[in-house]
Amino acid sequence: MAKAQPPPAREPLLPSSASPPPYLDARSGAGADADADSYVLLVPVRLRRLRRGCRCRCLGPLLSTLALLSLAGFLLWPADPDVSVARLRLAHVSVSARPTVRVTISAALKVRVRNPDLFALDYSRLDVDIGYRGAPLGRVTSGGGRVRARAVSYIDANLSLDGISVVEDAIYLLEDLARGSVPFDTVAEVEGHVHLFFLSIPVKGRISCVVHINPHNQTIVHQDCYPEA
Q1: Structure confidence by residue, pLDDT tens digits, 171-194
Q2: What is the pTM of this model?
Q3: Distance (Å, rounded) from C-alpha 101 to C-alpha 95?
Q4: Water stress and hypersensitive response domain spans which residues (predicted)?
Q5: pLDDT number for residue 19
Q6: Which has the least CB within 10 A, 75, 114, 148, 182?
Q7: Is the separation of the CB atoms in 147 and 140 below 8 Å?
Q8: Is the sign of the CA dihedral 79, 80, 85, 91 positive or negative?
Q9: Which of 111, 124, 123, 120 is CA-nearest to residue 208?
Q10: Rounded CA gap, 195 and 61, in Å?
C-alpha cells in the first residue's frame, strides 16, 4: 500500500499580480484609461492681481505725461498783447460852427504794446480810430513791426483830421465846446501773429479811451482808458 504523500506546503499569502496597485481605482480598465488620458487646466489665482498691477504701472506714466503736456500747452499758448496809450500830445484842435459844424484835430499818439508770450510777436499794423459820441470821425494806420518775447515796444501814430463834418451830434458838440471839455473816443488796435513752433496763431490787442479835450488851450482835461477783449 503506497504511502500517502503529504500535501504540498502552502506558499505565503502575497497579493496577486492581477490585483491593481493600491493607488489606482479598482474600477474597470476602460474607465481607468479614460481618466488617465483626461487633463485638468488650473488657472492661477494670482494671475489677475498681476494684470491689475501692470495696468496701474502703465497708466501712471501715461497720466503724468498727459498732465505735463496740458501744463506746457497752457503756459506756451499765446495770449493777446496788452495795449495802452502811453502818451497823447495835441498839436491842434478846433471846432467851427459856420457854415456847418466841423472838427479839425491833429495829434500824436504813442501806443505801448506789451508781449506777454514766450515767443516774438509780429504785428501787421496799428489802427487808431477817433470818434465823437460813438460816431466815427477818422482812422490812422501805422506800419507793422516786431515785439520780442516778454518785451515792450512803443508805436507812434500821427492823427490828422481836417474839417470833419459833424451833423447828427452838432448840438452836443457845441454844448461841449461851450463847457470847454469835448470828449473824443479813441480806439487803438494791434493785430499780429505769434509763431508757436510750426503754428502761426493770430492775436489782437485793443484799448478804448475817452479823452476830454479843452479846445481853447489845446490841453487834455482827463482821459479814461479800459482794455477790450
Answers
A1: 888 888 888 888 888 899 998 988
A2: 0.61
A3: 7
A4: 90-210
A5: 54
A6: 75
A7: no
A8: positive
A9: 111
A10: 30
